[in-house]
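Annotated sample (chain length 121).
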Amino acid sequence: MYVKRGRGRPSRRSILYVDVLDSIVSIAGRYDLDPKHLIDAFVEAWNNETSHLGSLKITCREINHNSATFLVTDREKVVSQFPIPLDALNFQKYLKNQIQHFPPPYHAQRKLEGKQKKSTN
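Output written by the structure step:
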């Protein structure tokens, strides 16, 4: 009997990081930032309590046994707040590798389309 093997189940790690990577890509797209630099800013905030990237300030608000919660602000305006698993912060190379597989958010795609139309005219 022939059994076709599929791609297999995704690793638990990649499932846990989807929401984190989606949030990072979305924020990076909205503020015209490189998502890999944004990952570095989260790691810096985890180590030093706060970090800055462009007009954004990232503050590590809480650390518990398995995650750290970050607040992202643009000047005084709250942009986002979400937890990141500590193992993701320890292995930011994995996050940076996986982030290249995420499509840019819709508003970032619209910006790119507008820039491409201007350059062709």
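Annotation: Residues 13-102 form one domain.
Annotation: The chain has one domain: 13-102.
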